[in-house]
Design a protein that fits this description.
about 130 residues; 5-stranded parallel sheet; Spore Coat Polysaccharide Biosynthesis Protein SpsA, Chain A; globular; 4 helices; alpha/beta
């Protein structure tokens, strides 16, 4: 199973360092990290600092909804886990989530949003 973390960072970089660090601390690393931003040069050093190999996509003219649609088009993972620029994942999030997702019955291809599942990014339980 391939897990993609998709980070959205548009004009708010105050907490992005913490978001990137939370990706780096995952006990089960993501297979793909995508970052959607309006400023590639501001974002790249933050992910490099934490050793996160991220594909940074500068798409400044997308609306919030269009950004999430684009994530579904670009992501290659079986599941996409969104992470806003001011959020963090608990270090075991992906490790704990993977077995749950593996047990789920597959969604019919015709009902998948852009061919991908979008997993809730709340840290309440996972």
């Amino acid at each position: 199973m391939k897990l993609t973390v998709a980070v959205v960072a548009y004009g708010r970089y105050k907490y992005l360092d913490e978001a990137a660090a939370s990706i780096a601390r995952q006990t089960r690393p993501p297979d793909e990290v995508l970052v959607f931003t309006d400023n590639r040069e501001a974002v790249r050093p933050i992910f490099q600092k934490h050793g996160v190999d991220a594909e940074i996509l500068q798409e400044p003219d997308l609306t919030y909804c269009a950004t999430y649609s684009r994530i579904g088009e670009v992501a290659s993972g079986d599941y996409v886990l969104p992470l806003e620029d001011d959020d963090v994942f608990k270090s075991e999030k992906l490790e704990r989530l993977e077995p749950v997702l593996t047990r789920q019955a597959p969604m019919p291809q015709s009902r998948r949003p852009a061919g991908r599942y979008l997993a809730n990014h709340s840290n309440d339980e996972v």
